[in-house]
Prior knowledge:
148 residues; alpha/beta; Rossmann fold; five-stranded parallel β-sheet; 43% helix
Amino acid sequence: MADELVYVSWGGTGRGATLRTAMERASAAGKGLLYLAILDDASFADLDATFLAVVKDELEWLLDAQLEVTKAQLGIEELPVRVLIRGGDVAEQVAEVVTTMGETEVIVGAPVPLADHESIESLLEMIRGRVTVPVDLITADAEGLDPT
């Protein structure tokens, strides 16, 4: 699907409230939602290929379930959603996915792990430097949402 909003998650990024906000934004814009789950190097680089495959399968099942439950809770069952699991550097993976999709929007849910980064803003600037589409950070507090 070419007309999707991309919600990016890695290493514990985001909360249920930020995913709900991303799904509401996608629905309001008449777009689908791509949940891009990145198995980042800081958290997963030391796993062997067999165990990494198991982690990917389990993560995909969990995220598919979370998306379906959240769609039902929000009453937006018609929202097209899909999960894509990638491994490696976060900014690089976001750039590769966005390049293949074309025009879209990237949403990162806070809190954001800061391994190898001085601040959230420096990490977002790194991602923004690799894509030509809007990159937005959603925080549960900023949206007035329950952070759980």
